[in-house]
Structure formats: C-alpha cells, structure tokens
Design brief:
Helix content is about 35%, strand content about 15%. The chain has five helices and five strands, in the order βαβαβαβαβα.
Length: about 100
C-alpha cells in the first residue's frame, strides 16, 4: 500500500506542493476536526461520488486512524487512480505529531 506520513504531508503542504486531500470520515467527525481545504466524501458515499475526483490528480486520503482511508485508497487504485496515497495513522497521527492543538477523539 502506498502511504504518506504526517511529516511528509506537512512538508509538502509547507512547500505549496498540495495534493488533493480527501476526508472519508463521517459528518460528525469532520465537525470535530479536519484538515483545511479537504474534500469531504464519507466512505459510505464513495462509490456514488468517485466522479468528483480526477484520476490524474495527486490524492491523499485520510480518516481517523487510517483504516477506512486505506480501503478507499485501494478502491481508487482499482479504478485506475495511480497517484493516491493513504495518510499513515490518519488524522489522529497528524494531531499527535504535527498539530498537537487539534482536537482528538
């Protein structure tokens, strides 16, 4: 599986090398915390909303701990998306290592 660490993603964001961020968590989770400018497509809606994403884009998928987003990243790869990665450890790892003031749950 292709993954990106929170540190690698932070470095890319700092360099304005911004991938498309896709948040696959439930609505209630996004109200607690999220990454700025992320596209929100809940996992259960993914099959119906895949056309909102461009297969040529560099995409980073994330969820709370990285399990749901890993499944979505695999699904996208099966559809021909070649530049998709999962955020290792999810938003929880981001909060612990990059943004300690982010609300955790």
């Amino acid at each position: 599986m292709q993954e990106i660490t929170p540190q690698e993603l932070k470095a890319r964001l700092d360099e304005n090398d911004r991938p498309v961020l896709v948040d696959v968590r439930d609505d209630w989770e996004t109200k607690l915390c999220r990454l700025p400018d992320a596209v929100h497509i809940p996992m259960e809606e993914f099959e119906l909303r895949t056309e909102e994403l461009n297969p040529a884009d560099d995409i980073v998928v994330y969820c709370h701990h990285g399990v749901r987003s890993a499944a979505v990243a695999d699904y996208l790869r099966q559809l021909g998306f070649t530049r998709v990665r999962n955020l290792s450890g999810g938003l929880d790892a981001w909060a612990r290592t990059i943004e300690p003031t982010m609300r955790r749950y």
